[in-house]
Design a protein that fits this description.
Elements lengths: L3 E7 L10 E7 L34 H4 L8 H11 L6 H6 L8 E6 L26 E4 L4 H4 L2 E6 L9 H16 L3 H15 L9 H12 L4 H13 L4 E5 L6 E5 L5 H5 L2 H7 L1 E6 H6 L2
Antiparallel strand pairs: 1-2, 2-3, 3-4, 5-7, 5-8, 6-7
């Protein structure tokens, strides 16, 4: 049976407030090609799962711990997940634990903010700033190869010890995230809609979509020093690109939009990337095409 890893491409903060997120799902085993000895300190990367599954597999075995199937009883599945992980959205666990028939790809996911325990039920004292509860929603995007070749993926190198535990990160920043979210919510909807159109080859990349949102969350104070270090270096090397950190503290993974350069151009810079503590994994199209 195949098991899957996952990465938040966009909306790791927004999904906590009931807004959509874009999540990349991929076969976990393929990550061993990149990180044969991936280690972290102070973090259990794969609680309850095989540690050799590699990056992005922290919720891979949650379906084995619960009696609820995310395809037949998403409310039961998510209620159980949030009881065990009260600060997390559960969006990535949902995508990760779908059956093998869903395969790999990019998923648009909505989890109601006020469903059971969760970040969005805390620290809300002004009803007019609350985001309305929405229903569960999930769909797999129809990826366009021309578009996805312009998105390049970077992950932590095996020698880097900067991966954050998501729960610890949320405990430290939940109030800051919740307090900040009401301000950009309206803009977010338009940016995400344009990103979905881009993934499916129906529109161009939204102007400064990654950069502006990353800067916003840096201003709020939830971006780690390591993530800022990597994004600044990538931006300096590729001045016409857009760079976004992803995950807790936005420093587990990085996605870069560059419409002109090829994977070969980026691989020529692999030594420099290693100095920064990251590895180049290829563009999104090639990454998902690897068997």
């Amino acid at each position: 049976m195949k098991r899957y890893g996952k990465i938040f491409l966009f909306g790791e903060m927004a999904v906590l407030a009931g807004e959509p997120a874009l999540i990349l799902r991929f076969e976990s085993e393929r990550m061993l090609t990149f990180q044969k000895h991936f280690r972290t300190t102070g973090t259990v990367v794969n609680p309850g799962a095989d540690p050799l599954l590699g990056f992005g597999s922290s919720s891979a075995d949650f379906k084995l711990k619960t009696g609820f199937d995310p395809e037949t009883d998403i409310e039961g599945f998510m209620s159980d997940y949030r009881l065990r992980n009260p600060l997390s959205s559960g969006a990535d666990a949902w995508v990760q634990n779908l059956s093998e028939s869903w395969g790999e790809g990019v998923f648009r996911v909505i989890v109601p903010a006020n469903f059971g325990p969760g970040l969005a039920t805390e620290n809300q004292t002004q009803p007019e700033t609350q985001i309305p509860q929405r229903g569960f929603d999930l769909r797999k995007l129809s990826l366009d190869q021309t578009s996805t070749r312009k998105l390049h993926l970077f992950g932590l190198s095996e020698t880097t010890r900067t991966k954050m535990a998501t729960d610890s990160f949320l405990k430290n920043h939940s109030f800051r995230i919740q307090s900040a979210w009401a301000d950009p919510a309206a803009d977010y909807a338009g940016v995400l809609r344009d990103l979905v159109s881009f993934f499916e080859g129906k529109n161009s990349f939204p102007d400064r979509a990654f950069t502006n949102w990353y800067r916003y969350w840096k201003k709020v104070g939830v971006v780690s020093d390591f993530s800022e270090f990597v994004t600044q270096n990538l931006q300096a090397m590729f001045p016409y690109a857009e760079v976004k950190g992803c995950g807790a503290g936005m420093n587990d993974f990085f996605v870069l939009y560059e419409p002109q350069l090829s994977s070969q151009d980026f691989r020529r810079c692999s030594d420099r990337f290693s100095e920064w503590g990251v590895e180049y994994w290829g563009n999104l199209s090639d990454f998902l095409a690897r068997g």
